[in-house]
Amino acid sequence: MSDQLHQINIAYIDKEDRLLMRATTKNGDEYRVWFTRRYAGILMDILNKNINKRGGMTTLGSTPQTSKMLKGGALEKPFKPDVRNYPLGEKGMLAFGIKTNVGKDKILNLQLLPENGQGMTLNLDNSLLYMFHNLLSQGIARADWNFKQDQDSAGSEHIH
Q1: pTM
Q2: Which one of 3, 55, 114, 115 has the minimum C-beta count within 10 Å?
């Protein structure tokens, strides 16, 4: 995704028994990516590890930038598609692989990849990482997949 991120939504779709992530850009592109239960678990593990490396959910959630986003209703605003283009097709892609990289600027580059073909990359700073984790956690809760891991495990690692 080369354009600036505008909005992300993650919804559980009963008929598919999958999560559908919809990410829109400022230029009107909408990327649709389907997450299976297994994929969502792997993605959550990756997010939790990156959050823990940055001080945990409490630290990320209390930054001025995150606080400003939350006060602005970042997690409550309804998803408003203003779409002119679907780079991955209207039906989207089934997520198969994940690649991550953290740049010098501490931005998490999260590549969501299909088995074959074009995927998408989310560039997540600390605040967007916090928000994305929350959206994925809410989607998993709605799916009622009964994950073994605690969805709030980010930041709960104990050092002895």
Answers
A1: 0.84
A2: 115
Residue 120 CB partners (closer than 8 Å, separation 6+): 1, 23, 31, 33, 87, 88, 111, 112
Domains of the chain, with CATH numbers? 5-143 (3.30.2450)
Of how many residues is the chain composed? 160
Q: Which residue has the tokens 């969502």?
A: 40
Provide the pLDDT confidence category of residue 72 given band limits of 50, 70 and 90.
Answer: low
Q: Is residue 123 within 8 Å of 112, Cβ to Cβ?
A: no
Secondary structure class of 127 (helix, strand, coil)? helix
- The residue type of 33 is V
CA separation for the pair 28, 153 (Å, rounded)? 34
Determine which helix (DSSP H) or strand (DSSP E) holds 129, and give its type and residue range: helix 126-143
Residue with tokens 């990756």: 46
Q: Is 52 helix (H, G, I), strand (E, B) or coil?
A: helix
